[in-house]
Amino acid sequence: NIVEDEEDCDCGTIEECHDQDPCCDPITCKLIKDAECASGPCCNNCKLKPRGVTCREATNECDLSEHCNGESGNCPQDVHKKNGNQCGSENNPGYCFGGYCPTLNIQCNLIWGYGGKSADYECFKQFNTKGSINGHCGLDNEKQQFIKCDLENARCGSLQCMSGSERPEAHGVDQLYSRTIISIKGQEFECKTTSGGSSSVGHTEIPDNGLVRDG
Predict the structure, then answer these.
(1) Is the separation of the CB atoms in 97 and 83 below 8 Å?
(2) Residues 108 and 202 in one domain
(3) Are residues 110 and 206 in the same domain?
(4) SS3 105
(5) Are 108 and 26 found together in one domain?
(6) Which phi and psi angles does 157 have, rounded to 5°?
(7) Nearest-CA neighbor of 106 among 122, 123, 121, 93?
(8) Per-residue model confidence (pLDDT) at position 172
(9) Are 129 and 160 contacting, i.e. CB atoms less than 8 angstroms apart?
(10) How far apart are alpha carbons 108 and 104 in whole angstroms?
(11) 92 lies in some domain
(12) Given 18, 95, 108, 190, which is the most exposed site by the fewest CB atoms within 10 A?
């Protein structure tokens, strides 16, 4: 079942070819007469699908759909939008990174469960610029201390969330977490953070120390 040099196809035994790839001659490993292709999402009844037919749908707003090129039965390589393309919504913006749109709300929801969302900017401003376990822009391994975020990069440090569950729900996230209520000009803001090792949830990587994901 491995196509080698000078082979058009390789479907295995005669029985396997009959069941799985009738467009391939099991003896010669060549396409049968009048066949244009053997298999693949761009091949239908041994004929190539027209150029432009969608063979792989986009899975999200940062992904791109792929289309048959009219020359091969295989679907082209899976590609996505360039990193840095804007995504999300006006109230929950993000930038495409690695084919996904890692908005703050999505990241908070993954960690804190249903209802979890990004905290107010005041949380990022008050904590991430201080460089403590409850808010920072990473760890300086040499000095063994947390790095203070510059004000303009406050949203790139610790992920500050609100609402959702009382404890982190994401599997693998260290249970070291904090919940703080701050009051500014008579208005209260809930600020929740986690720390610990990285963990994969679906396609989303939760970085070390509960930092905001790239994008």
Answers:
(1) yes
(2) yes
(3) yes
(4) helix
(5) no
(6) -95, -135
(7) 93
(8) 60
(9) no
(10) 6
(11) no
(12) 18
